[in-house]
Amino acid sequence: xxxxxxxxxxxxxxxxxxxxxxxxxxxxxxxxxxxxxxxxxxxxxxxxxxxxxxxxxxxxxxxxxxxxxxxxxxxxxxxxxxxxxxxxxxxxxxxxxxxxxxxxxxxxxxxxxxxxxxxxxxxxxxxxxxxxxxxxxxxxxxxxxxxxxxxxxxxxxxxxxxxxxxxxxxxxxxxxxxxxxxxxxxxxxxxxxxxxxxxxxxxxxxxxxxxxxxxxxxxxxxxxxxxxxxxxxxxxxxxxxxxxxxxxxxxxxxxxxxxxxxxxxxxxxxxxxxxxxxxxxxxxxxxxxxxxxxxxxxxxxxxxxxxxxxxxxxxxxxxxxxxxxxxxxxxxxxxxxxxxxxxxxxxxxxxxxxxxxxxxxxxxxxxxxxxxxxxxxxxxxxxxxxxxxxxxxxxxxxxxxxxxxxxxxxxxxxxxxxxxxxxxxxxxxxxxxxxxxxxxxxxxxxxxxxxxxxxxxxxxxxxxxxxxxxxxxxxxxxxxxxxxxxxxxxxxxxxxxxxxxxxxxxxxxxxxxxxxxxxxxxxxxxxxxxxxx
Length: 533
Known about the structure:
Elements: H1 18-61, H2 66-69, H3 74-94, H4 98-121, H5 127-146, H6 151-185, H7 189-204, H8 206-213, H9 216-221, E1 228-233, H10 237-249, E2 257-263, H11 265-277, E3 284-289, H12 302-307, H13 310-318, H14 338-341, H15 346-349, E4 355-359, E5 363-365, E6 382-384, H16 404-409, E7 421-425, H17 426-432, H18 434-444, H19 456-462, E8 467-469, H20 486-491, E9 494-496, H21 510-517, H22 525-529
Parallel strand pairs: 1-2, 1-4, 2-3, 6-8
Antiparallel strand pairs: 4-7, 5-9, 6-7
């Protein structure tokens, strides 16, 4: 047998059929899907567990149970009824239906008791034990619906109640302002007694009158421009005494201080008697009666002319015109008092003086005021502390800018300033005829259309462009109506009790009264006799 020759060629590869390949791909695909499904299932299960855990934590935090989340929850139904009942109880009380409010409250307490017992026992409420409570509450809620106890009704009633309360507050506020104004205007019995007692002493004791005259030495001091001259225009003896005493007590050289006090005819004798009885560190004191000034008459002074006008008299003294629409503070007759307006006639009152410090009678002096006389006013007439730190104290708050003459002449944002502690250059005053400027504006305001209240508005007009700002520490305001910073009180040279709460009145602000009281010697027999305290 012949052998086949040896074949050195590479053996041919074994080929698999297409069916084999399709089968293999299918098996691999099934294995992949199985593995992916298991991983996804485990991830989904983990997410569901986490979500369930978070839900349980939230439910525990707000005290919700599975039973309450049920669409047929009796607990939730009771809670909803209780919430509605609480609102309806308020409405019933507002409607003055106290019987219905009492019934609702009783039923609400019964439902709350059922819920409390169920929570304590940790057993869900069943329909049997709660059916009566739900039915009874539903009956009361139906009754409330028939009575129109709904949110809209409550809102309307509350709105009406708020409006009535606002009207009550407005009325009480107006009465408070009115009574406060009356209290501020009235003279306390103790001060009235003091005036009468001092008048008797003045006419009984001739030594007082001799002491007051004092000879040529005092007369020379009254005209000596090398001394420090102060003026006060007041009919209040005790208040003027505090101004003088506090100035003297804090003065470095009280023997160089001269006080010029101007009062009315009624208080001239008692004022003289008081300042004759007390020395006040040896300073010089002069008391004058403005009613003795021959130049002070209706032909020269617009305010005196206005007092003769019947409309002005009705406005200030009867209050019968304009149906009392004007606030009571605008009708205070003191705003027509010559003692209030004499500040515009200082050069006429003191014709020999070149410079004077004007003080109101409701101030207390805490520092030596002699440096005021060396302040350069830069050619201005009035040295005053400005009060325009806030918008309220600018010109437009004091004057009627709807009037064309005001609008044409004055900047509405110009800075206001205060009367009460002012240094006046009387040489410049006379040169610029400041009193004539005051007369012009006072006559323009005879119908009270430029301003209504007090002497500050005409002062702002008169001294417009003629006022030199002083350092704020010279004059601290607000002790008669508001709270003042303690640091300002400590550093202030002059403390001003402007406002209704004067320190000599019972309505005075107690926290500041000690600042005034320390300059009153309450141990004096005449003060004790009149019960001044």
